[in-house]
Sequence to fold (199 residues):
Amino acid sequence: MAHIDYYFATLSPFTYMAGTRLEEIAGECGATIAYKPLDVAALFGRTGGTPPKDRHPNRQEYRLQDMRRQASLVGLPINLKPAFWPTNPAPSSYAIIAAANGGGGDMGVLVHAITRAVWAEDRDISQDDVIRDCLSKAGFDPALADADMLGSAETYAANLEEAVSCGAFGVPFYITETDERFWGQDRLGDLHAHLMDNL
Fold:
């Protein structure tokens, strides 16, 4: 069975713009998904990237144009300057890890609900009430927002180390069980084609 390690960040607009297409692709191709939220700023620092705020103005301006176009292509609303970005991504990431361990809901819906809260709803995903609401919307027990936070913190840190060792350098990043790597929501079509070719 095909498998996808999915490295992403809850603050990433490009994770948001992936929507639930990964889950649709995995369902069509019979693939499993391991959800691995991580600290994208730390990933950039470890792999030669530059945080958006530190990029040349030309790159910053292009990024905003690209975000607008990409969101339009997939039919998603986007606020290019959200009220709560950046914010602390750890609490929402811990909740996703707890949800993956606890089960009972839809992981794709959860990740999209959290990223949508940032990029379309101007909500602060570092806040417990926002996280609980996203958990509920995805069919999870909202109490997972506070479940095993120490264990989730350890997994969150381990996800970063694993991503670096596996060749990831940005988000969203998809790696198959055969070490095929795909960077960006705009490469989901390529991932789909690869999985279909190997059914």
In short: The chain has one domain: 3-197. Residues 3-197 form a domain with the Glutaredoxin fold (CATH 3.40.30.10). The chain has a mean pLDDT of 98. The chain is about 50% helix and 10% strand.
